[in-house]
Specification:
- There is one protein chain.
- This protein is an alpha/beta fold and 439 residues long.
- The protein is built from 12 helices and 21 strands.
- It is 30% helix and 24% strand.
- Strands 4, 14, 15, 16, 17, 18, 19, 20 and 21 form a 9-stranded mixed β-sheet that branches. The protein has an 8-stranded parallel beta barrel with strand order 5-6-7-8-9-11-12-13, surrounded by 5 helices. Strands 1-2-3 form a 3-stranded antiparallel β-sheet.
- The relative contact order is 0.16.
- About 1% of the residues have low confidence.
- One of its GO terms (molecular function) is pyridoxal phosphate binding.
- Its EC number is 4.1.1.20.
Length: 439
């Protein structure tokens, strides 16, 4: 059994996180419920920042809020001295409501609407990461109409494909994201923006995938980008002040996952940037990264209540829980794998393997296909580990199921930071049929 962060088995044989008994959390807030180990979030963020600080390079560590965003999490990111990577008007509104310093907000996305760009400029975000020529034109028009100066990066696709799931590889040339290097798209946008007096192009961004367990892809990306930097300097007089290497740093979900410590990713990245800067006779650019999953992923645990069981002799034993693909769609979407235990019987030995099924009316609503557990029964509390990224943020109301609450735990205290939805919430935006006549 692998326990993350402050998780431990207490004297009652219950799973405890942040000094709080998870059985008590389940009783107080109901299930499903997302539980976040705040101390582990602090530790992960500190690991990234410390490596940069020790190396003495200009940097920003921007929390990728798409992994998990709510007002409390954004405020915690601010406390930790992080910048914020946002990708929508909703995430931008969350940052505003949280009182986050807008100069440390980076606005991403591959299809920013005119309204979103206006909203970002109204709030004074620190940087807009341009993804395509449509966005360039929108930003230029809006900046001119306001006579407003705007800092920007361009997102590039460097042609580096990380060894990861095909759905979340984004650095290869065939991608919906960014300006391709090999076709000359990046050159074209640089020429456009070099002539613009309102949009200040400060550097480039790249992101090569997710759940990456080594640094080879990042090093190769740096090498490929610097080969372009040298040419851009000669042809356009453009020397990037900022190199944003994106995120994608992996975490341990299950046995066999072997991610590096946060500081190791950073150290190898810095080493590569310094080496290529020296070769190109350029100043070392400011380095930005965007960890999301690697800050919150293994800090999250979802608690469920076991309901029905189904035994198919010689085939499989099913346990159904009161959540599923509505609170964690990753197994259905990515075939993602998880580990878990019975939180109320955490000190008992496993007796059999169970398939953990969700309650949605979908045969693909399976959380874990093979999990070793004691002989589980209804009303047991199942804890599924490492659900802190892309669980709550991708939660949905399929089958009109309510979204769970979110609880932060730290120093023996549990704090509700997102209220769970009620059945009334499910229909609050519905409108009645205008006509009562049958056709």
């Amino acid at each position: 059994m692998y326990l993350h962060g402050t998780s431990k088995i207490n004297s009652l044989g219950h799973l405890e996180i942040g000094g709080v008994d998870t059985v008590d959390i389940a009783k107080k807030y109901g299930t499903p419920v997302y539980v976040y180990d705040v101390a582990l979030i602090r530790e992960r963020a500190s690991g990234f920042k410390k490596a940069f600080e020790e190396a003495g390079v200009q940097h920003q560590v921007a929390y990728a809020s798409k992994a998990f965003s709510c007002i409390a999490m954004v405020q915690l990111a601010d406390q930790l001295g992080l910048s914020l990577d946002i990708v929508s008007g909703g995430e931008l509104m969350t940052a505003k409501k949280a009182g986050f310093p807008m100069e440390r907000v980076h606005f991403h996305g591959n299809n920013k609407s005119p309204e979103e760009i206006k909203f970002a400029l109204d709030l004074g975000v620190g940087c807009i990461v341009l993804d395509n020529f449509y966005e360039v034109a929108l930003l230029q028009q809006e900046a001119v109409s306001r006579n407003q100066k705007v800092d920007a990066l361009i997102r590039t696709t460097p042609g580096v494909e990380a060894h990861t799931h095909e759905y979340i590889s984004t650095g290869q040339e065939d991608s919906k994201f960014g300006f391709d290097l090999s076709s000359g798209q990046a050159d074209k946008v640089i020429k456009i923006l070099q002539e613009d007096t309102n949009v200040n192009l400060r550097g480039v961004h790249s992101h090569i995938g997710s759940q990456i367990f080594d640094t080879n892809g990042f090093v190769l990306t740096v090498e490929k980008l610097f080969s372009q930097f040298t040419r851009w300097k000669e042809e356009y007089g453009f020397v990037p002040e900022i190199l944003n290497a994106g995120g994608g740093f992996g975490i341990r979900y299950v046995e066999g996952d072997e991610p590096l410590p946060p500081e190791d990713y950073v150290k190898d990245l810095i080493k590569a940037v310094k080496k290529e800067s020296e070769k190109a006779n350029m100043d070392v650019p400011e380095i930005w990264i965007e960890p999301g999953r690697s800050i919150t992923g293994d800090a999250g645990t979802t608690l469920y209540t076991v309901g029905s069981k189904k035994d198919i002799p010689g085939v499989r034993r099913y346990l159904s829980v009161d959540g599923g693909m509505t609170d964690n769609i990753r197994p259905a979407l990515y075939q993602a794998e998880y580990e878990g235990i019975l939180a109320n019987r955490a000190n008992e030995q496993a007796e059999d393997h169970f398939a953990v099924a969700g309650k949605c009316c979908e045969s693909g609503d399976m959380l874990i296909w093979k999990l070793a557990l004691p002989e589980a029964d209804h009303d047991d509390i199942l804890a599924v580990f490492c659900t802190g990224a892309y669980g709550y943020s991708m939660a949905n109301n399929y089958n009109r199921i309510t979204k769970p609450p979110v609880v932060f735990v730290e120093d023996n205290q549990a704090d509700l930071v997102v209220k769970g939805e009620t059945l009334e919430d499910i229909t609050k935006n519905d409108l009645p049929l205008r006509s009562k006549e049958r056709v």
